[in-house]
């Protein structure tokens, strides 16, 4: 009634009069409860005058019987939310509460109400409350003192934070306020199991930390507390103290810290030097970093003694001498401490490097063992990386610049050291030095490039040579001129010198031939690695293409391999220039026509002269070209892509060759034509696929319908599996991007009509199945309604004795990320969660099919199921587990290797993540795993041993009965003939030995 | 196998402390023998026996039964070399040591994979 305005609150109060004045406190309580409930519902409708009266009434009721108080507080809470509360009332309500109510003797809910009242007033009547002065703070301290419930604490901490943040008068009560909050530090709270409120320990820690670190006024009390907790034994207390200290440093100044610096430093030092826990070490370093940053912030504004300087001096004094003993334990902790302090500000950096860098350089020359040198150089590298953070080297102040010559000589000496580890660190250091603007002189840069070339091409260890290529790649954009002028010609020269003709076939010759080949490989890789700047790409791409043409003309057996590696290099270049519009277009324009031209030419030669197959047309090479073209296409802008597509599609449909370089061909190019001799030309559909399926979705493809029909025909009629599969993939890739509508439906209908008869019988069932799989994938990805119909067809095929196994493998194709088409990278329409959707739609059908199937095809269903499960995200898998577990266990006894393997890899994460459920089946699991450790397939043995290892994460009590048996059984694979199996066996057996024994 | 064993006193592995080195390990698959020489960090390292025991236990658990194990101290690097070698070579004493739950605890700590 009150809500609609038919009644006024006054009328309600009058009506309740009897109740409200009843002598029985219980009756009074009920009356007030009713009134409060009404008020909670319609506090926004109240008039100012009504509010005044109600407030006075409620205030007087606060002195009432304790049974009544909860309802009174509810009512006050409702009133505290009124906007029309007249000035002064808030203060009087709070005063009344502070005076009359002993908050901590109330129930949790009622205490929460009090906090809500305070919060409400604080958000709406800030000015009035500030008028109360420190009394308000004191009142609140009394209210909060002794609070135990985490829910209330969260609110209370928030209030304290607001008190401080909004600048309420704390008066003489700073220490009390600190006491009343800091008594909870460090938070020690474990939420009860099944806690419905969802308060985590972390929430409390964070909100308390926000309180403690909110004002410098707390510093004199807080810092001793932190030091005390840091010195305690408890890991969590240490961690919390360190993090709180870090938070405090953001607002503290020199004044607050001054007194405590020595003891803070000694505690931090002790922790870093002694701790075994990485977490604490990190926290210590962060705290030291924050401390130094804080001090360097204050240093400018004060004229008194330079605190920062003395602080850093004490750090240096304690850490410096450890740096001179690269074999000892304390080297790294010291270096980390120094680096943490040095990373705080430019000032600290200079102060520390001034002292440390010369020392490190001196130590480097003093120690001659490469392992010691490596440690020293790694420390040096840490400091150099910090310099990177400050950007360019400043002329006047930098110590680094004055040490330029010795630093360079140390790094160069590392590069020529025989130890690979030292070389690797040297290369890293080189990268950092190179990225410091203006640090290296031009002659140094040339020297650097020479070193990199030497390492990349001639260093025996592949790790170093790869690192050198990486370094070249990351430095090339900084010094493009030096690299394109010095490195590229060198590489080109090496590449052209090529493997010598094999005239003598002695073993000596063979070896040098082999070396030359690997040198060529290195050259190709290096050319790709260094192509990280547009100007360099313009130099390297022609070199690579030229090499490809040269190799193609040759006749040697290694040609295929060589061409594949050129393509791999081109692919890498393509990836590196994807982000750069200009480079990308250059690459596309140069490489795509060239590759197409070479391929077309080779195909023509084969079909006119019936020459033996050219290496260029081998599946491997074509497969290597696909990613090149695809990567060159995906990042094109729509206009440029449209320009390009208008050349490429007519090439395939009409044999329009005019845009290709060297376009004088002996006959016409018609990959979709009929005829025996066109087999080679048909293979080039792979290149068409690479191009067309990578186009952005908004690029229109000319004559798309015709193209689709041709592809469909090719995929169903071709005898060569490679061509048929590629055509099917290309078809699927286009269908996936085709806008929905009648046209799409017609095409799909056509495809289904084409597929059905070939699937049923005939010589081309496999081709039809491949087409079905790819089209299904294309549709499943985009949630097309037809996809379920096609999936059902596929499920039906599982029962087919001939196609069943292939169809089962097809499920992995459907669920896995495909490499060349139909993935996000080539702009395919991929909906998120398509796997989950496929799982929920189809797994019940699979299970049902399994139960209804004959014995000879049961394995197909299991295989399909395990493929689906294998690709499912693990969290989903764990929740779906209980229903499927029995089926999975059955799958373990299936004799098919693929099923075993994929089931094992399914079970492995489950063992780790859902040990409770799995321990119910421990007996079966142990038996099955142990049986599989003697499987003939190595991969199965490894997977079974991994699972046996993972078993140890089940509850120990469940496992102990099996311990002896497992240890005995695992002794056998220890002597396996494969090293990887032995390795897993050792790990698993060692873990089983530790089960249930002391000291684990 | 033994490079990752933790030192009982330091938070480092035996390899990092150069207690075991590749050149001092001899394996003959044909004869099924393994011989490990280890170098205690200092000549009177009190943990030498324990380190030896850890290595031996780790190998016992990780190698097929056909191997005969020989774990001993690199000659000339420890003051009570012979005594320790004798202890390690004695099957009964190794077995007895592993019955001792306190010793077993320390050994297992050395062998646990570091988190």
TrEMBL record, chain A:
<dbReference type="InterPro" id="IPR011989">
    <property type="entry name" value="ARM-like"/>
</dbReference>
<dbReference type="InterPro" id="IPR029240">
    <property type="entry name" value="MMS19_N"/>
</dbReference>
<dbReference type="InterPro" id="IPR039920">
    <property type="entry name" value="MMS19"/>
</dbReference>
<feature type="domain" description="MMS19 N-terminal">
    <location>
        <begin position="13"/>
        <end position="274"/>
    </location>
</feature>
<protein>
    <recommendedName>
        <fullName>MMS19 nucleotide excision repair protein</fullName>
    </recommendedName>
</protein>
<dbReference type="GO" id="GO:0071817">
    <property type="term" value="C:MMXD complex"/>
</dbReference>
<keyword id="KW-0234">DNA repair</keyword>
<dbReference type="GO" id="GO:0005634">
    <property type="term" value="C:nucleus"/>
</dbReference>
<dbReference type="Pfam" id="PF12460">
    <property type="entry name" value="MMS19_C"/>
</dbReference>
<keyword id="KW-0227">DNA damage</keyword>
<comment type="subunit">
    <text>Component of the CIA complex.</text>
</comment>
<dbReference type="GO" id="GO:0097361">
    <property type="term" value="C:cytosolic [4Fe-4S] assembly targeting complex"/>
</dbReference>
<keyword id="KW-0539">Nucleus</keyword>
<keyword id="KW-0677">Repeat</keyword>
<dbReference type="InterPro" id="IPR016024">
    <property type="entry name" value="ARM-type_fold"/>
</dbReference>
<feature type="domain" description="MMS19 C-terminal">
    <location>
        <begin position="523"/>
        <end position="951"/>
    </location>
</feature>
<keyword id="KW-0963">Cytoplasm</keyword>
<comment type="function">
    <text>Key component of the cytosolic iron-sulfur protein assembly (CIA) complex, a multiprotein complex that mediates the incorporation of iron-sulfur cluster into apoproteins specifically involved in DNA metabolism and genomic integrity. In the CIA complex, MMS19 acts as an adapter between early-acting CIA components and a subset of cellular target iron-sulfur proteins.</text>
</comment>
<keyword id="KW-0206">Cytoskeleton</keyword>
<dbReference type="GO" id="GO:0016226">
    <property type="term" value="P:iron-sulfur cluster assembly"/>
</dbReference>
<dbReference type="GO" id="GO:0006281">
    <property type="term" value="P:DNA repair"/>
</dbReference>
<dbReference type="InterPro" id="IPR024687">
    <property type="entry name" value="MMS19_C"/>
</dbReference>
Automatic annotation (TrEMBL), chain B:
<feature type="domain" description="MIP18 family-like">
    <location>
        <begin position="2"/>
        <end position="68"/>
    </location>
</feature>
<keyword id="KW-0159">Chromosome partition</keyword>
<comment type="function">
    <text>Component of the cytosolic iron-sulfur protein assembly (CIA) complex, a multiprotein complex that mediates the incorporation of iron-sulfur cluster into extramitochondrial Fe/S proteins. As a CIA complex component and in collaboration with CIAO1 and MMS19, binds to and facilitates the assembly of most cytosolic-nuclear Fe/S proteins. As part of the mitotic spindle-associated MMXD complex it plays a role in chromosome segregation, probably by facilitating iron-sulfur cluster assembly into ERCC2/XPD.</text>
</comment>
<dbReference type="GO" id="GO:0007059">
    <property type="term" value="P:chromosome segregation"/>
</dbReference>
<protein>
    <recommendedName>
        <fullName>Cytosolic iron-sulfur assembly component 2B</fullName>
    </recommendedName>
</protein>
<dbReference type="GO" id="GO:0097361">
    <property type="term" value="C:cytosolic [4Fe-4S] assembly targeting complex"/>
</dbReference>
<dbReference type="InterPro" id="IPR002744">
    <property type="entry name" value="MIP18-like"/>
</dbReference>
<dbReference type="Pfam" id="PF01883">
    <property type="entry name" value="FeS_assembly_P"/>
</dbReference>
<dbReference type="InterPro" id="IPR039796">
    <property type="entry name" value="MIP18"/>
</dbReference>
<dbReference type="InterPro" id="IPR034904">
    <property type="entry name" value="FSCA_dom_sf"/>
</dbReference>
<dbReference type="GO" id="GO:0051604">
    <property type="term" value="P:protein maturation"/>
</dbReference>
<comment type="similarity">
    <text>Belongs to the MIP18 family.</text>
</comment>
<comment type="subunit">
    <text>Component of the CIA complex. Component of the MMXD complex, which includes CIAO1, ERCC2, CIAO2B, MMS19 and SLC25A5. Interacts with CIAO1, ERCC2 and MMS19; the interactions are direct. Interacts with KIF4A; the interaction facilitates the transfer of Fe-S clusters to KIF4A to ensure proper localization of KIF4A to the mitotic machinery. Interacts with CCDC117; the interaction is direct.</text>
</comment>
């Amino acid at each position: 009634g009150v809500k609609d305005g038919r009644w006024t609150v006054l009328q309600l109060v009058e009506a309740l009069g009897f109740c409200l004045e009843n002598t029985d406190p219980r009756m009074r309580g009920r009356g007030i409860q009713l009134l409060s409930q009404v008020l909670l519902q319609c506090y926004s409708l109240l008039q100012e005058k009504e509010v005044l009266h109600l407030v006075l009434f409620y205030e007087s009721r606060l002195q009432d019987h304790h049974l009544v108080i909860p309802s009174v507080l509810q009512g006050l809470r409702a009133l505290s939310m009124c906007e029309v509360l007249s000035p002064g009332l808030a203060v009087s309500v709070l005063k009344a509460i502070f005076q009359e109510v002993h908050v901590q003797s109330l129930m949790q809910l009622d205490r929460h109400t009090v906090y809500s009242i305070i919060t409400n007033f604080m958000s709406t009547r800030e000015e009035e409350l500030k008028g109360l002065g420190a009394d308000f703070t004191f009142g609140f301290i009394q209210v909060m003192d002794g609070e135990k419930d985490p829910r209330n604490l969260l609110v209370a901490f928030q209030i304290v934070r607001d008190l401080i943040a909004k600048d309420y008068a704390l008066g003489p009560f700073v220490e009390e306020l600190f006491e009343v909050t800091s008594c909870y530090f460090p938070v020690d709270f474990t939420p009860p199991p099944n806690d419905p409120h969802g308060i985590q320990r972390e929430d409390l820690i964070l909100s308390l930390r926000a309180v403690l670190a909110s004002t410098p006024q707390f510093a004199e009390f807080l810092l001793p507390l932190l030091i005390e907790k840091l010195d305690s034994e408890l890991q969590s207390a240490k961690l919390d103290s360190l993090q709180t200290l870090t938070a405090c440093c953001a607002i503290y100044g020199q004044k607050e810290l001054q007194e405590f610096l020595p003891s803070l430093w000694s505690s931090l030092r002790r922790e870093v030097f002694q701790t075994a826990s990485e977490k604490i070490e990190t926290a210590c370093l962060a705290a030291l970093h924050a401390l130094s940053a804080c001090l360097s912030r204050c240093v400018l504004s004060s004229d008194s003694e330079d605190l920062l300087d003395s602080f850093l001096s004490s750090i240096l004094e304690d850490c410096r001498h450890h740096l001179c003993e690269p074999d000892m334990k304390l080297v790294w902790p010291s270096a980390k401490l120094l680096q943490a302090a040095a990373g705080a500000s430019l000032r600290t950096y200079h102060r520390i490097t001034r002292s440390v860098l010369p020392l490190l350089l001196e130590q480097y020359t003093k120690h001659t063992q490469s392992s010691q040198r490596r440690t020293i150089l790694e420390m040096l590298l840490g400091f150099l990386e910090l310099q990177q953070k400050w950007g360019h080297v400043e002329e006047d102040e930098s110590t680094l610049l004055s040490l330029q010559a010795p630093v360079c000589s140390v790094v160069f000496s590392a590069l020529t050291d025989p130890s690979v580890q030292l070389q690797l660190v040297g290369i890293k250091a080189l990268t950092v030095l190179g990225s410091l603007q203006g640090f290296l002189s031009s002659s140094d840069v040339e020297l650097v490039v020479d070193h990199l070339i030497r390492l990349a091409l001639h260093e025996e260890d592949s790790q170093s040579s790869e690192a050198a290529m990486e370094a070249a790649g990351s430095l090339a954009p900084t010094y493009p001129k030096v690299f394109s002028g010095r490195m590229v010609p060198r590489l080109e020269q090496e590449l052209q010198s090529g493997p010598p003709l094999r005239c003598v076939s002695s073993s000596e010759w063979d070896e040098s031939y082999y070396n030359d080949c690997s040198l060529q490989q290195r050259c190709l890789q290096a050319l790709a690695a260094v192509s990280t700047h547009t100007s360099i790409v313009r130099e390297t791409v022609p070199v690579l293409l030229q090499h490809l043409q040269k190799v193609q003309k040759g006749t040697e057996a290694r040609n295929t391999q060589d061409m594949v590696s050129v393509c791999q290099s081109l692919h890498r270049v393509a990836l590196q220039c994807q982000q750069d519009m200009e480079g990308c277009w250059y690459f596309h324009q140069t490489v795509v026509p060239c590759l197409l031209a070479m391929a077309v030419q080779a195909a023509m030669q084969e079909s006119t002269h019936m020459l033996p197959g050219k290496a260029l047309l081998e599946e491997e090479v074509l497969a290597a070209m696909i990613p090149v073209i695809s990567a060159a296409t995906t990042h094109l802008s729509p206009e440029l892509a449209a320009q390009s597509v208008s050349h490429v599609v007519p090439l395939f449909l009409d044999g329009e060759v005019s845009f290709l370089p060297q376009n004088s061909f002996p006959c016409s190019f018609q990959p979709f034509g009929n005829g025996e001799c066109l087999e080679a030309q048909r293979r080039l559909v792979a290149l068409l696929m690479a191009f067309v399926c990578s186009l952005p979705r908004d690029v229109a493809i000319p004559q798309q319908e015709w193209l689709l029909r041709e592809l469909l025909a090719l995929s169903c009629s071709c005898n060569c599996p490679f061509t048929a599969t590629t055509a099917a993939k290309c078809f699927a890739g286009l269908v996936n991007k085709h806008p929905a509508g009648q046209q799409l439906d017609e095409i799909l209908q056509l495809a289904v009509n084409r597929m059905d008869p070939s699937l049923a019988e005939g010589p081309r069932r496999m081709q039809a199945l491949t087409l079905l799989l790819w089209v299904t994938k294309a549709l499943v990805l985009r949630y097309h309604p037809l996809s379920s119909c096609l999936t059902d067809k596929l499920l039906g095929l599982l029962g087919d004795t001939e196609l069943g196994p292939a169809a089962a493998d097809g499920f992995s194709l459907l669920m896995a990320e495909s490499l060349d088409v139909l993935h996000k990278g080539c702009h395919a329409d991929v909906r998120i969660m398509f796997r989950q959707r496929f799982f929920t739609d189809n797994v019940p059908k699979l299970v049902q099919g399994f139960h209804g199937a004959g014995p000879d095809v049961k394995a197909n269903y299991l295989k399909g199921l395990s493929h689906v499960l294998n690709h499912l995200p693990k969290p989903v898998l764990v929740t779906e587990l209980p229903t499927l577990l029995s089926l999975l266990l059955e799958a373990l006894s299936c004799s098919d290797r693929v099923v075993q393997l994929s089931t094992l890899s399914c079970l492995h994460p489950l063992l780790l993540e859902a040990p409770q459920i799995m321990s119910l089946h421990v007996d079966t699991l142990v038996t099955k795993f142990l049986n599989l450790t003697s499987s003939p397939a190595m991969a199965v043995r490894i997977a079974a041993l991994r699972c046996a290892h993972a078993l140890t994460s089940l509850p120990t009590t469940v496992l102990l009965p099996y311990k002896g048996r497992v240890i005995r059984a695992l002794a056998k694979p220890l002597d396996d003939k494969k090293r990887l199996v032995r390795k897993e066996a050792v790990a698993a057996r060692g873990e089983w030995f530790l089960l249930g024994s002391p000291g684990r | 196998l033994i490079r990752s064993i933790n030192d009982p006193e330091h938070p480092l592995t035996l390899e990092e402390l150069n207690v075991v080195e590749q050149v001092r390990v001899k394996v003959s698959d044909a004869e099924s023998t393994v011989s490990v020489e280890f170098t205690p960090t200092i000549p009177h390292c009190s943990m030498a026996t324990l380190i030896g025991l850890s290595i031996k236990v780790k190998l016992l658990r990780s190698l097929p039964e056909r191997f005969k194990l020989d774990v001993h101290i690199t000659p000339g690097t420890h003051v009570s070399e012979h005594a320790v070698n004798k202890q390690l070579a004695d099957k009964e004493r190794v077995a007895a040591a592993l019955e001792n739950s306190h010793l077993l605890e320390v050994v297992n700590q050395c062998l646990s994979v570091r988190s």
